[in-house]
Specification:
- The structure holds 2 protein chains of 2 kinds.
- Chain A is mainly α.
- Chain A contains 8 helices and no strands.
- Chain A has 2 domains: 49 residues, no CATH class; 68 residues, no CATH class.
- The longest helix of chain A is centred in the middle third of the chain and has 36 residues.
- Chain A starts with a helix and ends with a helix.
- Chain B folds into 2 domains: 100 residues, RNA polymerase sigma factor, region 2, helix turn helix motif (Rna Polymerase Sigma Factor, Chain: A), CATH 1.10.1740.10; 87 residues, Arc Repressor Mutant, subunit A (Orthogonal Bundle), CATH 1.10.10.
- Chain B is built from 9 helices and no strands.
- By secondary structure, chain B is an all-alpha fold.
- In chain B, helix 1 packs across helix 2, helix 2 packs across helix 4 and helix 3 crosses helix 4.
- The radius of gyration of chain B is 19 Å and the shape is globular.
- The relative contact order of chain B is 0.10.
- The chains are: A mainly alpha, B mainly alpha.
- At the A-B interface, helix 1, helix 3, helix 4 and helix 5 of A face helix 2, helix 3, helix 6, helix 7 and helix 9 of B.
Chain lengths: 142, 187
């Protein structure tokens, strides 16, 4: 079959042919049994492809999917809201850690003494005070 | 609480709005409405296998997580089909990397074509045609699946694949020609 006719045959199935193309194609169609056979086969193939669309997932597909979605996660809106909060908190926590490291490094560098007092730049502080309720309630006056 | 029976008549956009406020039945209805189309797209792209169900689930999970971003610029079925096509292409790439289909397996499949089909009956044999589709390269397979299996128009297919209509038509012609050659018993 001529290439141009073959091209027109495929084109005729999916889009419109121009007037000139249609005349040429119809002439060939009337005179070529080979073209008619090709069209018949192609039509058959396309019908079979169309029929092959009738497929589905396994019968439990929906249940499995909904279990995955709704047993582990909350509704999308709440999910995104919590995500935003978590994300914001991470940012704040990360900045606070950086600031703390900078402060501690600065104090170590200036004082050159490795003690809790020096690290936080506060005199009279120790780990014991942190756990002493009286000290915490009334401050250093007691 | 909204009556779940209303979801039968609701549009996709209305169902999405309901699903976004946590109405589970609305999302269930979305899945129910579109799963067959997504199933045939995925089966057309990667064949019937266990992975097809996993990819189908992944399509809906991705949509569920990005539901807020859906603007309704295209039909929901088109949007889901696009996700299904992308995930199927990833699966094809993964298979290629892992070489799941060995050369000997392919030769065996090819032998089946010749042994059990005749020229007259092959074109209407769904199983043979499905197997032949799996042999196409992905760019040809996609157009066959969207245009001829799913029944999208050439223009819709072009829109889904972000290609000019002319390219879709030429790939479609080429793909059909190759399919016919695959199916011919003496090829």
């Amino acid at each position: 079959m001529k290439k141009i006719i073959e091209k027109l045959m495929y084109k005729s199935f999916d889009t419109f042919l121009s007037a000139k193309e249609e005349v040429l194609f119809n002439y060939e169609l009337q005179n070529s049994p080979e073209l008619r056979e090709e069209i018949k086969q192609l039509r058959e193939l396309r019908n079979t492809l169309e029929k092959s669309a009738d497929q589905d997932f396994n019968p439990f597909f929906e249940d499995q999917l909904l279990n995955k979605l709704y047993s582990k996660e909350t509704i999308p809106f709440a999910f995104s809201w919590i995500n935003t909060l978590t994300y914001s908190f991470r940012k704040i926590a990360f900045s606070a850690i950086i600031l703390l490291i900078l402060l501690v490094s600065y104090n170590i560098k200036n004082g050159n003494i490795y003690s809790v007092e020096n690290l936080f730049g506060k005199s009279g502080s120790s780990i014991v005070y942190a756990f002493d309720p009286i000290q915490n309630l009334f401050g250093s006056n007691n | 609480m909204i009556n779940p029976s209303l979801s039968d008549n609701a549009s996709d956009i209305e169902l999405i709005e309901l699903a976004l406020i946590g109405e589970q039945y609305a999302f269930t209805e979305i899945v129910h409405r579109h799963k067959s189309k997504i199933a045939s797209t995925i089966h057309g792209m990667i064949g019937c296998c266990d992975e097809a169900d996993d990819i189908g689930q992944e399509v809906f999970i991705r949509f569920f997580r990005k539901m807020e971003a859906f603007r309704g610029e295209s039909a929901l079925s088109t949007y889901l089909t696009r996700i299904a096509i992308n995930l199927s292409l990833n699966e094809i790439k993964r298979r290629k990397r892992k070489k799941i289909f060995s050369l000997s397996q392919m030769i065996e499949e090819r032998k089946d074509f010749v042994d059990h089909s005749s020229f007259e009956t092959s074109y209407d044999n769904i199983e043979i045609v499905r197997m032949a589709v799996q042999k196409l390269v992905p760019k040809h397979r996609i157009v066959i699946v969207l245009r001829l299996i799913e029944g999208y128009s050439s223009e819709e297919t072009a829109k889904i694949l972000n290609l000019p209509v002319g390219t879709v038509l030429s790939r479609l012609a080429r793909a059909q020609k190759i399919l016919k050659e695959f199916i011919k018993p003496n090829s």
